[in-house]
Design brief:
52% of the residues lie in helices and 6% in strands. The protein has helices at 18-31, 43-46, 53-70, 87-96, 101-105, 108-114, 123-137, 151-167, 169-174, 236-245, 264-277, 281-288, 293-319, 322-351; strands spanning 6-10, 37-41, 78-81, 143-145, 199-201. The longest helix has 30 residues, at 322-351. The structure holds adenosine-5'-diphosphate and sodium ion.
Amino acid sequence: GFEPRVFSGVQPTGNLHLGNYLGAIRRFVELQDTHPCVFCVVDMHAITVWQEPAELMRSTREVTAAFIASGIDPERHIVFNQSRVAEHAELAWVFNCTARMGWLSRMTQFKDKAGKDRENASAGLFVYPALMAADILLYRATHVPVGEDQKQHLELTRDIAAKFNNDFSARIAELGLGVAATGEDAAEGATQGYFPMTEPLIDGPATRVMSLKDGTKKMSKSDPSDLSRINLTDDADAIARKIRKAKTDPDALPSEVAGLAGRAEADNLVGIFAALAGRTKADVLKDFGGQQFSAFKPALAEVAVAKLGPITAEMRRILADPGAIDQVLSKGAARAREIAAKNMAEVKKIVGL
Ligand code: ADP
Ligand code: NA
């Protein structure tokens, strides 16, 4: 079978928020103890929409600082930015030729991000999922911790891996580059192909953190309203103010999870509390069921500040020395390149390039 490996990426597009932390970065930290990990600041994904160059570089350092401040150890695991390892672009091209127009046309993120003026969206935004598949499969990663919003892209990654394995099965066998199948049913000499079927790791109470202003929209970096999200750079006052102003309904909190159905805003705030406190929603409602939001919100602000305050402080400390961050990224890129170069050379052989 494939050696277990985790890959995940975060875009340096500014405004890192609570959703990125709970849905992704926090999970990265946990996985460090069980898997070899590759954590990537995906700057080439960022430029699928316009980015100010100086701001992009600042953001790349900010995401790196957030990784480290949250507890990712760049000595033990690989932390780097995507554009420094050219093989990402190279494999993405191969996958542009593997993926079908129809597959890409069904991606809901493209439809959301391109909006009504699709003719004016970059071609990069359309093929973004092929680059994402390349990021993951370049390291033959078996697991990807992501938020719910990335589930469809992970399915596409598996479709690309399966088509590549199938299209080139004879060639992969001839070159002896397939990974041996394991388990009782595996026939003599059977292989699982060159690329693994990567699994998403999506679980816990905050895989989809919603906007504080609209419980039907996900919390997002690109929401024009700063009140819609808690940024990882917000201080205690800002966090408390945003939670106080968060949209809610007039009812008291229910005492059971079933009572959150149809109450998107209440469900979101309880889920955030649970994720930050490391508890289940049911457990949180045992304490707060029957109480008004006027009582729950200050408690939520307190948990949020206790959890995020130290991370914010550590991020500021790390960001004060941009040279040190650049050094972390350079070292990480060198380590990533070792794996990437070997795998890309094999892919080229398989394809006949
Ligand atoms: P964004 O969607 O805010 O631009 P990215 O695309 O860089 O952020 O996503 C980084 C990671 O954060 C991904 O794993 C994504 O699934 C996760 N993520 C983003 N927004 C949310 C959210 N609102 N709730 C949970 N996870 C999220
Ligand atoms: Na996203």
